Amino acid sequence: MEATYIKRKKDGRIHIMSGNKGDIVLKWTIIILAILTVVAFLFFNYAGLELGSAIRETAYNLKVMFLEPTLNHFDLGEAFYQIGITLGLAFLATIIGAVIAFFLSLMTAANLAPVWVSRTVRVFVAIIRAVPTVLWVLIFAIAAGLGSEAAILGMLFHSIAYLVKAFSEAFEEVDKGIFEALRSTGANWWHIVKSGVLPSTFTYLLSWTFLRFEINFGVAVAMGAAAGAGGIGFELFMASSFYFDLREVGFITYSILIIAFLLEVISTRLKKRYFPATTTK
Amino acid sequence: MNEKTMRKHRWQSGIFLLILIVLTYLSSAITTFNFMEGMATIPEAMGWIFSNLLVSQESFEKLPKILEKLAETIFMSIAATTIAAVVSLFLGVLGSNTTKVNNFLSVFARFIASVSRNIPVVAWSLILLISFGQNSVTGFLALFAGTVGFLTRAFIESIDEASQSSVEALTATGATYFQIVGKAVIPQCLPQMISWVLFMVETNIRNATLVGILTGTGIGYTFDMYYKMLNYNVVALITLCIVITVIIVDLISNYVRKVIL
């Protein structure tokens, strides 16, 4: 009888961990990331950088920003108005995106649509997602002119891509029995969606939409600064790049921080309530 | 479900719909967004994209320069993500309920994460630009600041979720704190954490474009330059390069995620 072969190291010790594919890939992922990080620091363009003074200056700037926030170029009412614009941009992009994503995800969910339709929509969504939002906004700005239209359309694309993924996954988790029961009563596709799929996933869809709204607020601030879409982001850009007014930058940062914090608290509650077990992306 | 509750549900969803419509109307008013006009520009914009945003022969001459900037951007995002991951690992271990040292440090870690996450990347890059100037380090630090917050929250969640029972088991054998963290918590959460890190690398490559436009570094700056010069053929080439990069990174990370999880 042949003895079982035991893998040993050179000095005769037994391997305690038998490596499987997952462990090997995990190890190499970490190693490659570490190597790329080291290489990155050699490749960086350090033009005009004086680290010591830069850090000291940033520390001083942060102190001025956060300890002495004031408004110099506009008043409090204007600040609220600008925040309103940013929230409005985010809201419109989210709500229009959610409506479009709802119909697209009906075509994407594997249990509701034929395979080729679902695959086409998925590839389409992946390509849309690969273009950064700011590029979408800038590209639309050429055709539609700078302003809220370009910003909302640009943000819409990513919102749709994100929500289609989330919605179609929610639809795919709907119990098969519901479909069968409805189909046996003679319901057509639209009936199944309206009275089977929608009622059982509605709260999920709403929470996902809110989570996207939280993301879109950040995006709307960014678009204001980088693509001239207006709102508080644009004021932030003006305050820091044109007026060099650190106290105003501090005030604007605080106001963004407060709104973002509120949105985060609400979305954490929603997550705990509706997705207790799964972590969400 | 009787008739009364059904009627109540219908009433509730009616109110809800009304609130949404009012909010939509208010948002359109404040942003001067015209829905019809906006929708009408989509076909127009698409037509423009397909007729003008084409990669032409002469734009290929710019390809080496673009690829160099693209490489800088990719390196910047990877470096920012990995270093942020190391910092977040410490913050995550301190902040998680199962492995916290004491309440003060836990709240402190969560607070740092929350602030760094909720100040948008734009604000970070504009703040850092003032004193660090136009170079890769500014972009790196801006991405780093945003990533730390996000990864810490993700790590805290994975640690909380995964390791309750094994921590209990190791505590029962009398293991020290570092043994528990090193032998139970980290090995158990590592696949989940790496999955988050890969997700963040991909997100950061896209964010790096935005940060680049603001801080004048990497591919974002190149894009902005040609965009302002109205040289749309090169703009198309740059967009194409970014799309291909993001899709490749996405495919790699999907593969790794499938194997390790």
Q: Brief overview, please?
A:
Chain B: The chain crosses the membrane at residues 74-95, 205-223, 229-252. The complex is a heterodimer of chains A (281) and B (261). Chain A has 281 residues and is mainly α.
Chain-wise SSE layout:
The complex is a heterodimer of chains A (281) and B (261).
Chain A: H1 21-43, H2 51-67, H3 76-108, H4 115-130, H5 133-144, H6 148-172, H7 176-184, H8 189-227, H9 232-241, H10 246-274
Helix pairs in contact in A: 2-10, 3-4, 3-6, 3-8, 4-6, 5-6, 5-8, 6-8, 7-8, 8-9, 8-10, 9-10
Chain B: H1 3-31, H2 35-52, H3 63-95, H4 103-118, H5 121-132, H6 136-162, H7 164-172, H8 177-215, H9 218-228, H10 232-260
Helix pairs in contact in B: 3-4, 3-6, 3-8, 3-9, 3-10, 4-6, 5-6, 5-8, 6-8, 7-8, 8-9, 8-10, 9-10
- As a whole number of angstroms, the C-alpha radius of gyration of chain A is 26 Å
- Assembly of the depicted chains: heterodimer
CATH fold assignment of the largest domain in chain B: MetI-like fold
Mean of the pLDDT scores of chain A?
Answer: 83
* Mean pLDDT figure of chain B: 85
Overall 3D geometry of chain A? Answer: flat
CATH superfamily of chain A: MetI-like
Number of contiguous helices of chain A: 10
Fraction of residues of chain A in helices? Answer: over 70%
Q: Can you tell me the residue ranges of chain B where pLDDT is under 50 for at least 5 consecutive residues?
A: none
Family (chain A): Belongs to the binding-protein-dependent transport system permease family.
Membrane topology (chain A): Multi-pass membrane protein
InterPro entries (chain A): MetI-like (IPR000515), MetI-like_sf (IPR035906)
GO biological process, one term (chain A): transmembrane transport
